[in-house]
Structures are given as structure tokens and as C-alpha cells.
Design brief:
single chain; 123 residues; alpha+beta; Nuclear Transport Factor 2, Chain: A; four-stranded antiparallel beta sheet; globular
Amino acid sequence: MKKGLLIIALLCFSLGFSQTNRESIEKAANNFQTAFNASDYDAIFDMFDSKMKAEFPLERTKLFFKRIKESRGEIKSMEYYKLREKALVYKTTFEKDVMDVRLSLNEKNGKLSGLYVVAIAKK
């Protein structure tokens, strides 16, 4: 009986933590959309954790998102639809295309540890 209660307590704790983490990522998604649409690529870069910044320096970040904006347009909406390997995946509707944007957070500091923009496979 005690083991059952412990398991339930742990599950409740992990579900609560997951909800908090999801809320943090959803906030990051909103901030990303706002910065992207304003062409504020410095703000997107500031959302990255130190590892992301090292792997994706500011000039590369600016060039990457500038190219996406030029080819796809502004983001009209971002709709969460699944979890994939600790990343929330958003169906992201741009003016000219629909793509997946995957976001994951560094749990220690709340900064983005992963941000992937991926074409949705055509069926």
C-alpha cells in the first residue's frame, strides 16, 4: 500500500513538473513568434542557453532566421500538437508555408536548449 501511494505521489509530482515545463516552453514559443515577426533576431539569440549560443552564434542565428522569414513570411500561428524527445512540437503556419518548430528548454535556467525548424513531410 505504501509503495502504491509513493508511486502515485511521484507521478503527481512529475506531471506537475511537466506542466510547469510545458508552460515555460509555451511562453518561449510566444516570445519566439513575437521576436521572429519583429525581425528581432538578437532577442531570439538571447533566448538560447550557453550551449546553443556556442553552436549557433549570433550572426548565424540572424542569417538563418532572416532566410526563413524571406522565404516563408511572418508566423501567423503556432499550435502545439505533440511531444518529441523532450521537445514540444508546434505546427507553425507562416504566410507562405507550414512547418514544424520544435522547442526544448534547459531545465536549469529556462533558456532554449533546442530550436528546430523542420519542413513537414508531404503526404
